Amino acid sequence: MSGATATDSTGGSALTPPPGAETPVRHPDAPEPGTPLGSHYEQCFGCGEAQSHGLHLEARAGEGVGVTAEFTVRPAHQGAPGLAHGGVLVSALDETLGSVQWLLRTIAVTGRLETEFVRPVPVGTTLHLRAHCTGVSGRKIYSSAEGRIGSPDGPVAVRARAVFVEVQLEHFTKNGRPEEIKAALDNPDQHKVVRAFEVNP
Ligand SMILES: CCCCCCCCCCCCCCCC(=O)SCCNC(=O)CCNC(=O)[C@H](O)C(C)(C)COP(=O)(O)OP(=O)(O)OC[C@H]1O[C@@H](n2cnc3c(N)ncnc32)[C@H](O)[C@@H]1OP(=O)(O)O
């Protein structure tokens, strides 16, 4: 196996901001550091409070264009006996990285996500995650994240780098299953979330 970095069609590193990328700027109306960001959708597997088997990840605004989050591994999240499933850990990283958009006030979806699994994560562990934006290039938002076991200074269990791609609200309304889209559009709380991302529903 080679340890080569993923490359894009131009041969550059797909997860590193390209030359000329802008330094990310925290939106002036972004929540103060320490503010809980809440859920962007109650049925979200990552952060939704109504999703019984979900991660129930709780993210807060951090300093700069960064966030912190916690997620406690439950029995429903196992892969091997007593250990978190790798895909669940990727979901926690994806959700944390996605939460960075609250600080930029843009809506973006994951285009590419690379994860390094450093240590196994036992059931019952609280994973302390942090993520920050590393650059913006057109619609592409580059970010990185890590998750530590037990405390913000605990041993590193997972690391990730990602590129998100900015989208309009139509990305969801055109592609999502109609019944869930209708329920979301009928929910006043969902409108508040969309406003927090500064997008007209
Ligand atoms: C009523 C309801 C309200 C709901 C309110 C919800 C609000 C808040 C929701 C947040 C939700 C977050 C949840 C967690 C984060 C997920 O998990 S998101 C789910 C997983 N991701 C997806 O499903 C994305 C699926 N992929 C796609 O839809 C499309 O491929 C994409 C990513 C939108 C790109 O398509 P496109 O817009 O046609 O992009 P395109 O114009 O070709 O390219 C634009 C640029 O992006 C680059 N690019 C395109 N694709 C990629 C890629 N895969 N990798 C890297 N670069 C790419 C291109 O190279 C291009 O770069 P430049 O040439 O400009 O330098």
In terms of topology, how is this protein built?
Blueprint: E1 58-61, E2 66-72, H1 86-99, H2 101-104, E3 108-117, E4 126-137, E5 140-149, E6 156-166, H3 170-175, H4 178-185, H5 188-196
Antiparallel strand pairs: 1-2, 2-4, 3-6, 4-5, 5-6
Bound molecules: Palmitoyl-CoA (PKZ).
Palmitoyl-CoA binds at residues 40-41, 94-95, 98, 107, 109-112, 138-140, 163, 165, 167, 172-173, 181, 184-185, 190, 194, 197.
Give a verbal description of the structure.
This protein is an alpha+beta fold and 201 residues long. It has a domain at 58-196: Thiol Ester Dehydrase, Chain A (Roll), CATH 3.10.129. It has five helices and six strands, in the order ββααββββααα. It has helices spanning 86-99, 101-104, 170-175, 178-185, 188-196; strands spanning 58-61, 66-72, 108-117, 126-137, 140-149, 156-166. A six-stranded antiparallel beta sheet has the order 1-2-4-5-6-3. The longest helix has 14 residues, at 86-99. The protein is globular and about 40 Å long. The model has no long low-confidence stretch (mean pLDDT 92). Palmitoyl-CoA (PKZ) is lined by residues 40-41, 94-95, 98, 107, 109-112, 138-140, 163, 165, 167, 172-173, 181, 184-185, 190, 194, 197. Residues 40-41, 94-95, 98, 107, 109-112, 138-140, 163, 165, 167, 172-173, 181, 184-185, 190, 194, 197 line the site of Palmitoyl-CoA (PKZ).
